[in-house]
Design goal:
Blueprint (H helix, E strand, L loop, with lengths): L1 H20 L3 H21 L3 H26 L12 H22 L12 H7 L1 H12 L1 H26 L1
Helix pairs in contact: 1-2, 2-3, 3-7
Length: 168
């Protein structure tokens, strides 16, 4: 299990780096698809089959295909390529070091131990994995789910609007 997690974690790091490192937007989107698929495998390793299926179908499937279509519609080849300055890597390194320091301080201060929740494995097995996730999503987390869907809709409409304006 640990070896499998290490392999998937390495996959996640490489594909996440590809999301920000490639120069062509289509490669960035395809790296994000690969990252979402790796995240789905992590859900499967954690015995969260519903989240695995939702990740593959909704995010790696529908949403990312929509993003790829939007990128193709916007025709990124017609954009003027701006040269990269060295300052992006400096900012990335500074923020990476700050993030790593925060993460290390959390790990050493036992900030990730948390407190036991009400959903024990026995309680989930009694109700069911899918039912437990559905109840949580549509009761406790309804507002964040709706805000996320609204943000995705706004992003898609905005991208189509920008592409249509450029075509005219």
């Amino acid at each position: 299990m640990v070896v499998g997690f290490a392999i998937v974690a390495a996959w996640e790091i490489v594909t996440a780096a590809g999301v920000v490192a490639f120069r062509k937007p289509i490669y960035n989107a395809l790296s994000l698809v690969a990252n979402m698929l790796g995240l789905a495998v992590l859900f499967l390793m954690l015995n969260a089959q519903f989240l695995f299926a939702a990740q593959v179908i909704v995010y790696a499937g529908a949403v990312m295909v929509l993003f790829v279509f939007i990128i193709a519609l916007m025709n990124p080849e017609s954009d003027v390529a701006l040269p990269r300055r060295g300052s992006e890597w400096i900012y990335g390194a500074v923020f990476g070091v700050i993030f790593a320091a925060l993460l290390v301080s959390l790990l050493f201060n036992r900030g990730l131990t948390g407190r036991p929740g009400t959903l024990t494995p026995e309680a989930i097995a009694a109700v069911g994995n899918v039912q437990t996730v559905g109840i949580a999503l549509y009761t406790k987390f309804l507002f964040p789910v709706e805000v996320t869907s609204l943000l995705l809709l706004i992003a898609a409409v905005g991208a189509v609007y920008l592409a249509m304006r450029r075509i005219r």
